């Protein structure tokens, strides 16, 4: 269990360091620069480093450390809870940034800056984690370094099935995110963490259950067994299609592309009670009848 304790210490160090960087950049940068650049960069770094270490524990832990997947999924739930609570508005996920753009919540320039910051953050997180593994502080890291050059693709099914699985995971994740985005943090954070943990448990043996294009690039794009086109189809186009489907189902439209609601009828903002409406119509009829009776007949 000493190796697991080292990994937990690594998680705590990454989270605390990224939190310090967030607070420092929040003081030095303008709100726009912090939101689009520093926040997304540190969030992606934090998420990528933690994800890589968790993947290593999931692959090596059962036979190299004597603990099962239940320990890893418990860590996943706790870590994502910490991530969701500490990212300070950042998404660290390209499909979430594109969703905000399509909802007219982010401008094209801000979205491009977020995507660039996420790419830099993921690359930095990958480099830091590789350096940390090279120190071989535990037996896990020694084994990881031995098998790193021979890693295989996380796609363990056909391309179409893999794209469908990643798209379905992305669809459910974004649907929950859209439904809870106005909810209180105390409800939203554990619900999202539980959703991510469940989806990862359900699909990890099929595609790795990334449903985050940035994480997929850092984790599996360098592995052999699939071409770049295969990776793009499964880990980019699949989550993008899932996000668009969830957005269309939740909103009925995609505000950036078209305003017409294709699924849900437009309801009037003000509703008139039926009893009041019937009373008003009856009064109009009575007034109309009295007016007709009071009109004198024309004289010759």
Kindly, what is the distance between the CA atoms of the first and last residues, rounded to a whole number of angstroms? Answer: 113 Å
User: What is the tally of beta strands?
Assistant: 0
What is the string of SSEs from the N terminus onward? HHHHHHHHHHH
- Structural class, from secondary structure content? mainly alpha
Helix content: over 70%
> What spatial form do the alpha-carbon principal axes imply?
globular
Explain what the structure shows.
The protein is an all-alpha fold and 300 residues long. The protein has 11 helices and no strands. It has helices spanning 2-28, 31-64, 69-86, 94-102, 108-134, 139-147, 159-180, 185-203, 213-220, 228-251, 274-294. Helix 3 (69-86) runs antiparallel to helix 8 (185-203) and helix 7 (159-180) runs parallel beside helix 10 (228-251). 34% of the residues are buried.
């Amino acid at each position: 269990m000493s190796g697991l304790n080292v990994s937990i210490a690594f998680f705590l160090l990454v989270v605390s360091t990224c939190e310090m960087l967030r607070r420092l950049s929040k003081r030095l940068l303008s709100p726009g620069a912090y939101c689009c650049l520093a926040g997304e960069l540190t969030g992606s770094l934090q998420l990528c480093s933690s994800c890589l270490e968790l993947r290593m524990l999931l692959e090596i832990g059962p036979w190299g450390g004597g603990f099962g997947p239940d320990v890893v999924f418990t860590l996943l739930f706790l870590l994502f809870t910490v991530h969701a609570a500490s990212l300070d508005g950042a998404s660290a996920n390209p499909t979430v940034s594109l969703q905000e753009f399509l909802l007219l919540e982010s401008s094209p320039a801000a979205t491009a800056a977020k995507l660039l910051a996420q790419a830099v953050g993921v690359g930095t997180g990958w480099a830091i984690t590789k350096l940390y593994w090279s120190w071989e502080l535990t037996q896990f890291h020694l084994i990881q370094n031995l098998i790193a050059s021979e890693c295989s693709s996380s796609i363990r099914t056909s391309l179409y099935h893999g794209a469908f699985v990643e798209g379905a995971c992305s669809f459910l994740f974004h649907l929950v995110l859209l439904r809870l985005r106005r909810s209180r943090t105390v409800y939203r954070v554990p619900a999202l963490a539980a959703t991510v943990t469940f989806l990862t448990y359900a699909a990890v043996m099929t595609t790795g259950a990334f449903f985050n294009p940035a994480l997929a690039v850092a984790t599996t794009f360098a592995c052999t067994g699939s071409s770049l086109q295969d990776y793009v189809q499964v880990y980019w186009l699949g989550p993008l299609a899932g996000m668009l489907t969830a957005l269309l189902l939740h909103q009925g439209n995609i505000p950036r592309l078209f305003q017409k609601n294709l699924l849900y009828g437009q309801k009037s903002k003000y509703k008139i009670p039926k009893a009041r409406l019937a009373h008003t119509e009856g009064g109009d009829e009575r007034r109309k009848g009295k007016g007709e009776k009071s009109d004198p007949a024309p004289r010759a």
